[in-house]
Amino acid sequence: MRRPRSVVVAGAGAAGVAAAETLRREGYEGPLVLLGDEPAPPYDRPPLSKQVLTGAWEPERTDLRDADHFAGLDVRLVRGRATGLDVGRALVRVEGAPDLPYDGLVIATGLRPRRLPECRDLAGVHVLRDRSDALALRAALRDALRDGRRAVVVGAGFLGLEVAAAARGMGLEVTVADPLPVPMTRQVGPRVGAAVAALHRDRGVDLRMGAGIEEAVAEDGRVAAVRLSDGTTVRAGVVVVAVGAEPAVGWLRGSGLPLGDGVECDEHCRAAPGIYAAGDVASWLNPRYGRRMRVEHRTNATDQGAAAAHNLLHGDVKPFAPLPYFWSDQYDVKIQAHGVFPEGSDVTIEEGAVEDGRFVALYRSGGALTGVLGWNLPARVMPYRKRLLER
Predict the structure, then answer these.
(1) Pick the CATH number of 7-112+246-314 from 3.30.565.60, 2.60.40.420, 1.50.10.20, 3.50.50.60
(2) Which of 57, 226, 296, 358 could form a disulfide with 376 if both were Cys (CB 3.0 to 4.6 A apart)?
C-alpha cells in the first residue's frame, strides 16, 4: 500500500490529536495539518461540565498539549472552520483561509449541540459544548447565584445532570426537566436511572421527569421562566439546554461521503479511499457487535483517532472493535460503565447495594452479559469488564 504524501486531520479535539500523534509515532514524516475551529489550543472536554464550570479549574488546565508539543511533532496547527470537502480534487475548504490539499484525511469534527426552537436567540439560555460555552455558563450561574435566581436544566442525560450537580455545588437552586420518566434511562435503563433520580433529589434538585419544555418566557429580552408540558411554570435566571448533540457533518454535505448518523465508515474507520473518520462524528461497523455504532465518549475518541490514523498509514489492517466505555461524575458519585446496555435489559445488582451508594450492576440481554456498571466501586467493575472482553 502507498503511504499518504500529505495528511489533514480535520478536528483538533481528542480524536484529532490522537490521530496526529499516532501518525508521527508510527513513522509518517510528510506534511501534517491539524485543523481546529476554536481559538484555544486542543483541550479536553469532559472537565468543562465539572471542574471548569464550578471554577475549580481554569480553562487552561484542560489543554491536551502545549504549542511546543505540536511544534516538536512538526504538526501545523491551522485555526479555521471546515466549510466543504472536494473529494475529487482532494481539498478541504476552510472559512476565510486557503484550501487544504490532502492525500490522506482524518475527519474528527465532533458534535454540534442541539438547540430548542422555544429558546433560540434568547439571552440567558445556554448550551455547553466548548470552552467559551463553559465560561459563559459559569459567569451566568454566578450571576444567578448572586441574584438569588434559579437554574433550569432541560435534559436529564449525562451532560444535563453533570451541569445540575455543578450548579448545586455552587449553591444554586436547580430544576431539571425532561419528558422521559427516568433520568439517563437511554444510557443506563430505568433501574439505575431511578438511583440517579434519588441521588439528585437527595441533593436538593427539583427533578421534573415526564415534563418537557413548551415555552421559554422572556422579560426584557432575556429568559425569565420556562413553561413545562405538565402545566407548571418555573422561574429561571439561567436555562441550560442539554438535549443531546448531532454529528458535525454539515460541511460534508455534497461531498459524496456516506452521511447517516455521522460519517459512515467500515470496520477500519474508512469512509472512502484515503478518508477516515474518528470520534463523535464517526458511525462505524463495530465487528465486536456486528452492527454500526457511534460513540460519544472521551475514551472512544482517543482510541478511534489512533485506529483511524494507523489504518490510513498502513492500509486497513486493524479493525476497530472496542468494548464501549463511559463514565460520569455527579457530586461524590463516579459512574463507570463498560459494554452496551440494550433497552429492556435484565439488570441485577451483583455486588453492594443501591441504598448503600456503592454497587455493581450487570446487564443481560437474551441471557447474555452485555454490560457492567459500577457506582462508586471502580475496582470491582474490572473483572466483569474482562468477561465482556473475552466474549
Answers:
(1) 3.50.50.60
(2) 358
